[in-house]
């Protein structure tokens, strides 16, 4: 039931001790302010890291060759391993049930591309049709490399938006001829890439054409990439990725006469396993931010509790008179708790609204690849406020309980 006299007492007590009340409220408000800002910063880091993984499809596994570091079957270390089409084909056949998308790649580093009077050195890659899905390439004009291009060794090119702007300016590129290291290719598509301009300076060509034209008809490839069929849970995806990487590593090492424990000869990188590392890092960051924020709130709540003890001490004689006139212990507890909860609630709202306003104003202005859209879920923000009110109630309860235990005769003798 609303008791106007109780609220009058609270406001009178606050008015008599403005500075003390302000400092107490500031400590509580700063606690929730810091907590919400830290949670928002943690979310910004999480969003930024998640954005980086948009450059690749879910669960991309990259495989490349290196140099042997161990003697094996009479072969000395230091041998350079070369992946070939047969490595790609045997991997596809062996793990057909696990594989969703697959692509081999043969690169031309700093390929000289000429169109009319425009020229430049760009990264040219011979790839398979599935490379579009693996790299999450978006076609804005024309098409990507297809199976007929691969089968017929067609001289076609799919160019990035940045490269198109450099060479063609505002002109339509589809159907035009470009010269790559003095070999003519027809532009059949233009793409954008979530990785940005660096990726959009690339040119994608049919891998068989690149092998024939720039590799003197060889069957060499630089690397292979695979995605696996999606799983219902992250744990299942991680287990499937580990099974595939172990299996394909053993297969390729056996085919190329490499020691089973030689990790340098056949390199494998799984984004599924990398994502786990980043998720773990995000978890540790969130836990650290929660810990710092909660410790700050606890410091503010301890301040509230100390202030309530001082208030009880100052009002000891008043409490004794109230009890002598018939006030119940419950009413004494309520009197102290009301003031404690009121201060922490108002201070908590101020801290919460200030932090949310700061995130809303400053967050969009922060430009970073690894920090994006710092925000706090409303449910979490509300939960922190409820937590704060409960903490404020607990902070006031113990002084209130102490006040309720004071005997009237002792309180009336207090000076």
UniProtKB/TrEMBL annotation:
UniProt domain MacB-like periplasmic core: residue ranges: 21-240
Keyword check for Cell membrane: yes
Annotated transmembrane regions: 21-42, 288-312, 332-358, 378-398
Coiled-coil intervals: none
Sample GO molecular function, one term: transmembrane transporter activity
Membrane-topology descriptor: Multi-pass membrane protein
InterPro entries for the chain: ABC3_permease_C, MacB_PCD, Macrolide_Exporter_MacB
UniProt domain ABC3 transporter permease C-terminal: residue ranges: 293-408
Full protein name: ABC transporter ATP-binding protein
Annotated compartments: Cell membrane
Alphabetized Pfam families for the sequence: FtsX, MacB_PCD
Keywords, sorted A to Z: ATP-binding, Cell membrane, Membrane, Nucleotide-binding, Transmembrane, Transmembrane helix
Keyword Ribonucleoprotein: no
Entry's family note: Belongs to the ABC-4 integral membrane protein family.
GO CC terms of this entry: plasma membrane
């Amino acid at each position: 039931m609303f008791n106007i006299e109780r609220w009058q007492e609270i406001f009178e007590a606050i008015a008599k001790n403005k500075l003390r009340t302000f400092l107490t409220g500031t400590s509580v408000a700063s606690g929730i302010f810091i907590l919400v800002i830290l949670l928002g910063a943690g979310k910004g880091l999480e969003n930024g890291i998640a954005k980086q993984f948009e450059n690749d499809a879910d669960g991309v596994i990259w495989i490349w060759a290196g140099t042997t570091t161990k003697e094996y079957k009479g072969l000395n270390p230091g041998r350079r391993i070369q992946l070939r089409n047969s490595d790609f084909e045997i991997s596809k056949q062996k793990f057909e049930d696990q594989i969703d998308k697959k692509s081999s790649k043969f690169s031309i580093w700093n390929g000289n591309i000429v169109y009319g009077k425009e020229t430049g050195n760009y990264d040219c890659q011979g790839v398979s049709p599935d490379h579009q899905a693996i790299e999450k390439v978006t076609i804005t004009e024309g098409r990507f490399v297809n199976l007929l291009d691969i089968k017929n060794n067609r001289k076609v090119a799919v160019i990035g938006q940045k490269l198109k702007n450099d060479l063609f300016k505002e002109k339509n590129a589809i159907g035009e001829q470009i010269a790559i290291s003095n070999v003519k290719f027809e532009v059949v598509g233009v793409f954008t890439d979530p990785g940005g301009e660096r990726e959009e300076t690339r040119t994608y060509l049919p891998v068989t054409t690149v092998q024939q034209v720039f590799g003197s008809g060889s069957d060499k490839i630089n690397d292979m990439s695979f995605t696996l069929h999606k799983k219902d849970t992250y744990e299942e995806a991680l287990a499937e990725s580990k099974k595939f990487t172990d299996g394909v590593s053993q297969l390729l090492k056996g085919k190329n006469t490499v020691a089973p424990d030689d990790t340098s000869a056949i390199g494998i990188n799984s984004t599924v396993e990398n994502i786990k590392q980043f998720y773990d890092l995000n978890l540790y960051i969130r836990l650290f931010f929660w810990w710092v924020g909660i410790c700050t709130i606890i410091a503010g709540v301890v301040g509230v509790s100390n202030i309530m003890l001082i208030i009880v001490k100052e009002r000891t004689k008043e409490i004794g008179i109230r009890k002598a006139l018939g006030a119940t212990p419950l009413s004494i507890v309520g009197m102290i708790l009301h003031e404690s909860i009121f201060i922490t609630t108002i201070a908590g709202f101020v801290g919460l609204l200030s932090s949310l306003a700061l995130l809303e104003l400053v967050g969009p202005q922060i430009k970073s690849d690894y920090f994006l859209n710092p925000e706090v879920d409303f449910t979490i923000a509300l939960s922190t406020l409820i937590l704060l009110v409960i903490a404020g109630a607990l902070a006031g309860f113990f002084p209130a309980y102490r006040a309720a235990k004071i005997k009237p005769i002792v309180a009336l003798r207090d000076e």
